[in-house]
Amino acid sequence: MIEIKDLRFQYGEGDFCLDIPHLQVKEGERVAIVGPSGSGKTTLLNLIAGIARPQSGQIITGATDISALDDGAIRDFRIETIGLIFQEFELLEYLDVLDNVLLPYRINSALRLDATVMQRARELLTSVGIGDKLDRHPDKLSQGEKQRAAVCRALLVKPPLLLADEPTGNLDVMNKDRVLDILLDYASDNNATLVTVTHDRDLLDRFERIVDFKQFLSDSRDGVAAPGQGLDE
Amino acid sequence: MSGIFYLAWRYLAFNRWKTSILVGSIMLIIYLPVGLNVVVEQSGEHLTARAEATPLLVGAKGSPLELVLNSLYFSLETPEIMQYSEAASIMDSGLAEAVPLYVRFRSRAQPIVGTSVEYFSFRELRLADGRMSAFLGECVLGAAAADALDLAPGDSVVSSPETAFNLAGIYPLKMKVTGVLERNFTQDDHAIFVDIKTAWIIEGLGHGHQDLAQPEAASAVLERTEDNIVANASVVQFNEITESNIDTFHFHGDLAEYPLTAVIALPRDQKSGVILMGRYVDGSAASQILRPRDVVDELLDTILTIQQFIVAAVIIVAIATIATAALVFLLSLRLRRSEIDTIGKIGGGRWHVASMLLTEIVIVLILSSALATGLTILTWRYGSAIIESFVLS
Amino acid sequence: MYRGVSLILIAMLLACTQEESRESTAATEFAAPDTLNIYTVNNPLAYFAERIAGDRAEVSFAAPPDIDPANWSPDAETIIEYQQADLIVLNGAGYAAWVTNAVLPRSRLVDTTSTLADRLIPIENAVTHSHGPAADHSHSGTAFTTWLDLDIAIEQARSILERLIRIRPDNESEFRQAFAELEADLRAADAQLQAAAENLGNQAILFSHPVYQYLERRYALNGYSVHWEPDVMPEEADWDQLQAVLQQHPAKIMIWEADPLPETTRRLADLGIECVVFQPGGNRPLAGDWLDLLRQGIAALEGVAAM
Question: How far apart are the first and last CA of chain C?
Answer without folding.
Answer: 87
